[in-house]
Write a structure and sequence with these properties.
Elements: H1 2-18, E1 23-25, H2 30-35, E2 44-46, H3 53-63, E3 76-80, H4 89-102, E4 107-111
Parallel strand pairs: 1-2, 3-4
């Protein structure tokens, strides 16, 4: 009976992976992992929109002993991204004004670039 349950679960898992038209993943190993469930290679897509965590940890160790750039702040909100209208950073700034009422020591740090469009 246990063997039948395991075989059924394996079949259902494989079926669940085969149903989607596409799988979007962040690692190249997805070809092997999803392929082992029978997902065709042409339905597996790898995106590079993921941080290299190994690099982040290495940099973190390097800067751990460095002097901080900003003073410590328990209520700092950081936005990182291109400063384009559709990201609505203006809404973030207005919302942050409400936060400042309850947390006067709060800080908003906006990091980004403005893409200049040709005129």
């Amino acid at each position: 009976m246990l063997r039948l349950i395991r075989m059924t679960m394996l079949f259902l898992t494989k079926f669940a992976f085969i149903i989607p038209d596409a799988h979007v993943n962040y690692i190249d190993e997805a070809f092997d992992i999803l392929g082992s469930y029978g997902v065709p290679r042409e339905r597996i897509f790898i995106t590079r929109n993921s941080p290299d965590t190994d690099l982040l940890f290495a940099v973190g160790e390097t800067i751990a002993s460095a002097e901080p750039i900003l003073p410590q702040c328990e209520h700092r909100l950081v936005h990182v991204g291109r400063l384009v209208a559709w990201k609505r950073v203006d809404m973030l700034i207005r919302a942050f004004a409400c936060i400042k009422r309850d947390f006067p020591d709060a800080e908003l740090l906006i990091i980004g670039t403005v893409r200049k469009t040709p005129v």
